[in-house]
């Protein structure tokens, strides 16, 4: 399951990142998005979602949310 399929308001644990792009991998790691970290979908919007990660909120587009496995 990926982050774009998550329910709003429910906490999930990041299982991994499904991308071959090393820059994207490094970017997500710098946000604190890596295996074992909790993540919560605050709200879903057309074309993406707002997530809470490491006491911060981020707006992610659908492609980025689909790369985060939960």
TrEMBL record:
Q: Is Chaperone among the key words of this record?
A: no
Q: Name one Pfam family in it.
A: FeoA
**What are the GO MF terms of this UniProt record?**
transition metal ion binding
Q: Does the keyword Nucleus apply?
A: no
What Gene3D superfamilies does its record include?
Answer: 2.30.30.90
Protein's recorded name = FeoA domain protein
Domain Ferrous iron transporter FeoA-like, chain residue ranges per copy: 1-70
Q: Which InterPro entries match?
A: Fe-transptr_FeoA-like, FeoA_core_dom, Transcriptional_repressor_C
Keywords linked to the UniProt accession: Iron
């Amino acid at each position: 399951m990926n982050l774009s399929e998550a329910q709003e308001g429910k906490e999930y644990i990041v299982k991994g990142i499904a991308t071959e792009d090393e820059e994207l991998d490094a970017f997500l790691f710098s946000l604190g998005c890596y295996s074992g970290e909790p993540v919560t979908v605050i709200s879903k919007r057309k074309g993406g979602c707002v997530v809470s990660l490491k006491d911060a909120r981020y707006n992610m587009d659908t492609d980025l949310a689909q790369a985060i496995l939960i």
